[in-house]
Amino acid sequence: MAKKAKANPFLMWVLGWAGPAYINLVKWTTKREVIGEDILDRLQRGEEGYIVAFWHSRLLMMVPMRQTYEGRRFWFMISEHRDGDMIARAVEHFDISFARGSTMNERKKDKKKGGADAFRTLLKALKDGEAVGLTPDGPRGPRQRCHAGVAQLARLSGAKVYPVGYASKRAKLLDSWDRFHLPLPFTKGCYVFGEGISVTGDGPEAMEASRLEIEAALNHVTRIADETMGHEPVAPAEQRAVRQDR
């Protein structure tokens, strides 16, 4: 079995202070607008567990939003790859719990990547009334195409999936697989909350319909955020078979 690649210790040290500092700098110098604030209010007042879903490219500014969900534990699912180590290091100061793993890649069925353990951790958290943040196209894409895991987690837990989009007026669009949206300081930002999606059907056809519904909702709220901030919306990657959990 191949050993997991380890992140550079110096880079991890830098991320440990630079990551939180940059996130807070953007947060403190950004004038925030929330579309769908009534939905956010309902989440804050409720006692049931729920899933917040957002595309991988908008991950950075979802981190400080954790402080919005006061009174309950908040979980992120991140990969066991060294990229996940770096993400965990950068955001560990924001009172976020981590479930390490990722959805199974059909091309690498022999590598579970801790996905089953992470899934069980998140399932228990939701049933305990806690909150879970997921990037349904992570950790490796395709961009803005929803994997099946989020729909399966919602069905088994009974928790609703709330799609959230974010964009910043001043931002750099990175040349990465997800076209990462890097917000810059001293600007305006926009969060868009969509209505919760319940996944109640069973069987392949029903689950595929739920997956597509979540994908469409996420692209919708992200497009609204982009357009509100004056950006051309990023197009999803070309459609191809999206890996499915079993």
Automatic annotation (TrEMBL):
Stored Pfam families: DUF374
Annotated segments matching region Disordered: 227-246
Residue ranges annotated for the DUF374 domain, each copy included: 69-143
Descriptive protein name: DUF374 domain-containing protein
